[in-house]
């Protein structure tokens, strides 16, 4: 997944802003609405509606990422429009270019199926740091080079609303919240291993038989099981490993160190 594919938006605490701006979360972020999608010079805030408009009006901010791109999201589907995700991905410098560091923070919801887990593992192999937070992330945000922050309101009827700000006070405050959540989160590989199901010796033997590529009949005979019992155990293993196929079960077991 490119660094743009997911975003984290974190609640800004009232303590981070002026006392007079405490009406709600958007007020706390010094958001002042003047017409539609307008920068407010005093507070350096812009509001846009929908993914496409966010890319059109604020996409240049992604192009400017040079040192660090951090984001946090509940799952992998933060942006509803694939074209918008791809547009931002094209604007971002490649990870590692000029020292760009990318950090992504997700909740366990992002690991809901094997496809999602495989996607995140691929992201890690490309050099992106990924961690899983046990603490819910009620909002999503991106912070770029600690100078630009994008906040998104909760999903609701109509297009999602985003607030973009370059206010140093707000950017630094939210970045501090992200850093604290990041430090408390678990690295992806370690989290997956810690989430591994307990398998007894018989179950591990079935896994090894699957990995060896035996037919069901050969594997059952090798393990001293009836064909029906062997197939039942394979089905139980697939369920325990949350795999949709025997191939996925084998991959998942190998990643979790369960086949030894």
Automatic annotation (TrEMBL):
Domain HTH luxR-type residue range list: 196-253
One of the record's GO molecular function terms: DNA binding
Record-linked Gene3D superfamilies: Winged helix-like DNA-binding domain superfamily/Winged helix DNA-binding domain (1.10.10.10)
GO biological process: regulation of DNA-templated transcription
Name under which the protein is recorded: HTH luxR-type domain-containing protein
Organism of this sequence: Microbispora bryophytorum
């Amino acid at each position: 997944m490119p660094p743009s594919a997911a975003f984290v938006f974190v609640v800004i605490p009232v303590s981070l802003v002026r006392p007079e701006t405490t009406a709600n979360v958007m007020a706390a972020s010094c958001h002042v609405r003047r017409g539609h999608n307008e920068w407010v010079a005093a507070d350096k805030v812009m509001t846009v509606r929908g993914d496409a408009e966010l890319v059109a009006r604020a996409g240049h901010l992604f192009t400017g990422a040079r040192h660090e791109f951090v984001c946090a999201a509940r799952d992998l589907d933060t942006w509803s429009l694939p074209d918008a995700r791809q547009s931002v991905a094209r604007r971002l410098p490649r990870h590692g270019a000029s020292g760009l560091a990318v950090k992504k923070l997700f909740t366990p919801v992002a690991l809901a199926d094997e496809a999602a887990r495989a996607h995140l593992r691929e992201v890690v192999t490309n050099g992106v740091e990924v961690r899983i937070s046990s603490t819910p992330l009620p909002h999503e945000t991106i912070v770029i080079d600690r100078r630009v922050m994008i906040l998104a309101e909760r999903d609701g009827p109509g297009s999602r609303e985003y607030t973009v700000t370059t206010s140093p006070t707000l950017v630094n405050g939210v970045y501090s919240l992200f850093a604290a959540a990041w430090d408390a989160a678990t690295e992806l590989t370690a989290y997956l291993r810690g989430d591994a199901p307990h398998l007894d010796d018989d179950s591990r033997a079935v896994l090894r038989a699957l990995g060896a590529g035996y037919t069901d009949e050969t594997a059952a005979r090798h393990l001293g099981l009836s064909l029906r019992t062997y197939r039942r155990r394979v089905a139980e293993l697939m369920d325990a490993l949350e795999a949709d196929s025997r191939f996925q079960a084998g991959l998942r077991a190998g990643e979790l160190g369960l086949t030894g």
